[in-house]
Amino acid sequence: xxxxxxxxxxxxxxxIWIAASFNGLVTLTNRAKESWxxxxxxxxxxxxxxxxxxxxxxxxxxxxxTTFEDVTNARTAAMGATGVASKAQAENxxxxxxxxxxxxxxxxxxxxxxxxxxxxxxQLTDTENKIQAARRFYNTNVRDLNVRVExxxxxxxxxxxxxxxxTFFELGDSAADQAARTAPTVNx
Length: 188
Description:
- This protein is mostly helical.
- It has helices at residues 2-58, 65-80, 84-106, 109-113, 115-150, 154-160, 175-181.
- The chain has one domain: de novo design (two linked rop proteins), CATH 1.20.1440.
């Protein structure tokens, strides 16, 4: 009889452990998905600000057509990118083209004093800060999930229930990504 109780106790403990591990993996997966949605919200806000910013600069620097086209093309590419890796690469390219737009604006004192431009610049700076915070939050959640998926004994449950590692939202090794790592030198 005692043996039966011991076996039953071990089975109950195993079931509780499996359920707790499964629920922990579900929680981490949902947190990572939620944090990815936070990134999308901030990126959408940035996409909405960019046309207004480009139009503000266009009025002062009409001959800088290539810069405007580059920003517009980078915005379109970023909006159409899917998946974490391609989205990260497209966003890094967009950040790089925005730096060149601000560099153009630096050459126009009247533009730098324009209240609409200053408001747009402040909003874009705020959005960029929020994007960075959302990326850090996402990467933290992905790290926690990936550790759980790879670590023993939770990797047994992860494998049994097909939990997958997620991709970090990070800079790559391309020239554009390296440029994005460099702080811009823009004086307003």
